[in-house]
Write a structure and sequence with these properties.
With about 170 residues, the protein is an alpha/beta fold. The chain is built from 6 helices and 5 strands. It has helices spanning about 25-35, 60-70, 85-90, 105-120, 140-145, 160-170; strands at about 15-20, 40-45, 75-80, 95-100, 125-130. Helix 4 (about 105-120) links the parallel strand 4 (about 95-100) and strand 5. The longest helix is centred in the middle third of the chain and has 17 residues, at about 105-120. The radius of gyration is 17 Å and the shape is globular.
C-alpha cells in the first residue's frame, strides 16, 4: 500500500470523448457517465465532418449533448475539425476516451489510437467496454430503426427521442 499523499501540484486529467453523436445514444451517455468518473474534466467533442450527411447540424447536436450531460459537472461539450490529436493537445488533454461495443470496433479504434499516438506520443487512448444493455446500439442503427417506424425508447435519452420524432416528422412532410 502506498503512503503517497496527493500533491497540490498534481496535473488534472483532461480527457476527450470524440464522436459524431448524431444522435447521442444511451450507449454514448453510459460512456460519458463512466468516463466522467475517471477524469477531472471530460470534453465531449463533436467532429465536424462535412463529408457526412447528418440528421442534426453540429449546433443542434451540441445543444442536445449539453442538455443530457448537464448533471455531470466535470463534462463540457465542444466541436472540432481536423486531427483529433491536435485538438486534444489544444484542449490540454492527454487522454482520448473511446467506447468499444464489439471486436469490429476494437480493430478500427486500435488503428486510430496508434495513429494518434504516432502524431502525439503523450496522448493515451482509454477504451471503455459498452455496458451489456448498450452493446448493440449505434447512432446509425437508431436512425434506421426510427425511420422505419419502430420504437427507440431506451436506446436514446427521452429528450433525444422526442427530437428524433420531430425531425423525422419534418422530413416526411
Amino acid at each position: 500500500m502506498s503512503n503517497a499523499v496527493p500533491s497540490e501540484n498534481c496535473e488534472k486529467v483532461v480527457a476527450i470523448y470524440p464522436g459524431s453523436f448524431d444522435p447521442i445514444t444511451s450507449g454514448h451517455l453510459d460512456v460519458i457517465e463512466r468516463g466522467a468518473r475517471l477524469c477531472d474534466r471530460l470534453v465531449v467533442a463533436i467532429l465536424r465532418n462535412e463529408a457526412k450527411s447528418p440528421l442534426f447540424e453540429v449546433e443542434e447536436r451540441m445543444q442536445m449533448l449539453r442538455e443530457v450531460v448537464a448533471p455531470y459537472k466535470n463534462v463540457e461539450v465542444d466541436s472540432f475539425d481536423g486531427l483529433l490529436a491536435h485538438y486534444a493537445l489544444n484542449k490540454g488533454a492527454r487522454v482520448i476516451l473511446r467506447g468499444i461495443r464489439a471486436i469490429s470496433d476494437y480493430e478500427y479504434e486500435l488503428q486510430m489510437a496508434l495513429m494518434n499516438r504516432r502524431l502525439q506520443p503523450e496522448l493515451e487512448t482509454v477504451f471503455l467496454l459498452a455496458g451489456e444493455q448498450f452493446s448493440f446500439i449505434s447512432s446509425k442503427l437508431v436512425k434506421e430503426v426510427i425511420s422505419l417506424g419502430a420504437n427507440v425508447t431506451g436506446l436514446v435519452p427521452p429528450a433525444i427521442e422526442k427530437r428524433l420524432y420531430e425531425r423525422l416528422k419534418k422530413r416526411n412532410i
